[in-house]
Amino acid sequence: MWYKMLIPSGVKCIICGAECNGTALCPDCYNSLPFIHNHCRVCGGEVYGELDICDDCVGNPHLYDRCHCVLEYDGVVRDKILALKNNHKKYIALPLSDILMQEYGKLGWNVDIIVPVPIHDNRRKERGYNQSELICSRLSNDTGLVDTNILTRVVDTPHQTGLDRANRKKNIHSAFKVSDRSKVKGKTILVIDDIYTTGSTIDECVKTLKKAGANAVYVLCLSRTPVK
Ligand SMILES: [Zn+2]
Ligand SMILES: [Zn+2]
Residue 219 Cα, ligand 2 centroid: separation in angstroms? Predict the structure, then answer.
């Protein structure tokens, strides 16, 4: 189980390096994380004004039934997620997976299956792991609902970074496939991702799962790029 494998001996806080027990995130650093407080009613990102919908969601409809984002993708959160993705720092996933589990518990959503956004086999060979699977390790451990085989990425798409909304959508089109429709039909599925930017990748996953017969698709993202 990934969750157990991620726990290093002599745990230190991933942010300040202080010795701490178990979770690799000391209480001070945990408390200083940019948790989202005023959630957009559509994407679950932070809203800054009086409205309950963010500027990004006005005029950009999405296919998911519910979406919740936990942290603002900024500063230390961005640094740590990038280090997890690009610098082989797998241990960073451990406290992040604890945070996701905690949020999932608070949401009280009733789901049948939890699916991390898959990466293509080529990317997995290059990186050695899927960071979205790693941040699901605690959910996998505690709920037993995580399935990493149902949804696969069949197109090795170029990175979405630097692309605008229209090109992100085009880039990710038809990139995913459901391996066993009978497991998806009539089910409520929760998709997990590390970063929500325009929602293009998530929408493509949702579209693929719904086409395969999913009853509802919810989304939980560890972080959301700020919409200012
Ligand atoms: Zn710390
Ligand atoms: Zn929004």
Answer: 13
Q: Which helix (H) or strand (E) holds 99?
A: helix 93-107
Q: What is the pLDDT of residues 50-90, one digit of tens each?
A: 889 999 999 899 999 999 999 999 999 999 999 999 888 89
Distance 96 CA to ligand 1 centre (A): 13
Give the distance (Å) from ligand 1 centre to CA of residue 226: 23
Instruction: Answer yes or no: is 119 within a domain.
Output: yes
**Cα-based angle 7, 16, 96 (whole degrees, multiple of 5):** 45
Measured from the alpha carbon of residue 61, the closest ligand is: 2
Domain that holds residue 82: 35-224
Report if pTM > 0.85: yes
Q: How many other CB atoms are found less than 10 A from the CB of residue 158?
A: 10
- Structural domain count of the chain: 1
Q: Say how many Å lie between the CA of residue 164 and the centre of ligand 1.
A: 35
